[in-house]
């Protein structure tokens, strides 16, 4: 079936009205939940094939977070769908105002390769909860997961409701030439610009979940041992191939040696003396990205790690010093297990360093100072982040997750996912029994006086 024919099929399915009732939406989510549990081992195996992810990491960062999102959505869906009353203004009196929820229609979900299962399914949950039909485009760079997602969703749902389009650049381009009612894209900034440009043709609303250089600040008051431990966790999770991983660390200059010693200890504790020999240590997704990362390693000084193995596409957790803001490694998102550490003199200089760059997707601050927290949070714009931790701000369905500026637009997770894929339709129902004459011609001085009295 061609992509054009698939969209026509989904349009017919959506226009039948079958996706709108609460019972249908909840049933679809429950079916998806049960299918994930049933196929858990196969999902873990596919993630191992594509990225070398260990089972525990696969469940923690992909499967478990998706299951939790479905449970939260099912518990709250009826309330989210409920028509809401709205106040009536003096200009509308007498009347009733209400806000109705309605699905957009047929939506396109484009997923990346770094968390190929989670980032396919998380937006899908919101789209189905909102009553839409969905076309999913997984990444061709993660073929095992792409095949599994196609099989799993094909067993759960008819093609007119949820369909998976596999393939590479050609399929992406063909999909973006079609008219969708909403596009949800997760991936790099440059491709995100292309998606936005294509969406403009039909004025299609878009959510862009992008990335950027997410900073981590460690000030003089920080618990350095805790900071080192949590930075190592957040940075080297999934071999650094995480959009919200700390991209670089700014540390107060008189604590830099202590932080480097702490990170060295935790890298050794987590990954052993030779991380590349550990079966559960992930790999870089492909040769192209491996070569790019090797090129970035040539700058600065390798303070920790640096080992690499081309035949397995692995690079050990690596900490790099003696870099500056103009280094190549500081001009692009690293997206790998390389972590530049840069000293700073004052918090003001660290804030200026960050603000000279594009707004990041995430920011992390390690401090015990309330004034430092206030200054950083009030002066730097970023998508979301943590104080005294990394990564975990996105591991909840109770806060929205998304970027700002070049790191993206729109948000999802929990209620935010439902909102993203829902059009909120305001409706006023006017009373038939009283018709205030103020709005009608002729516009007399008396009417003007009355309007000024009631509408000021």
TrEMBL record:
<keyword id="KW-0520">NAD</keyword>
<dbReference type="InterPro" id="IPR029510">
    <property type="entry name" value="Ald_DH_CS_GLU"/>
</dbReference>
<dbReference type="InterPro" id="IPR016162">
    <property type="entry name" value="Ald_DH_N"/>
</dbReference>
<feature type="domain" description="Aldehyde dehydrogenase">
    <location>
        <begin position="6"/>
        <end position="426"/>
    </location>
</feature>
<comment type="similarity">
    <text>Belongs to the aldehyde dehydrogenase family.</text>
</comment>
<dbReference type="GO" id="GO:0006081">
    <property type="term" value="P:aldehyde metabolic process"/>
</dbReference>
<dbReference type="Pfam" id="PF00171">
    <property type="entry name" value="Aldedh"/>
</dbReference>
<dbReference type="InterPro" id="IPR016161">
    <property type="entry name" value="Ald_DH/histidinol_DH"/>
</dbReference>
<dbReference type="InterPro" id="IPR016160">
    <property type="entry name" value="Ald_DH_CS_CYS"/>
</dbReference>
<dbReference type="InterPro" id="IPR015590">
    <property type="entry name" value="Aldehyde_DH_dom"/>
</dbReference>
<dbReference type="InterPro" id="IPR012394">
    <property type="entry name" value="Aldehyde_DH_NAD(P)"/>
</dbReference>
<dbReference type="GO" id="GO:0004029">
    <property type="term" value="F:aldehyde dehydrogenase (NAD+) activity"/>
</dbReference>
<keyword id="KW-0560">Oxidoreductase</keyword>
<feature type="active site">
    <location>
        <position position="209"/>
    </location>
</feature>
<dbReference type="GO" id="GO:0005737">
    <property type="term" value="C:cytoplasm"/>
</dbReference>
<protein>
    <recommendedName>
        <fullName>Aldehyde dehydrogenase</fullName>
    </recommendedName>
</protein>
<feature type="active site">
    <location>
        <position position="243"/>
    </location>
</feature>
<dbReference type="InterPro" id="IPR016163">
    <property type="entry name" value="Ald_DH_C"/>
</dbReference>
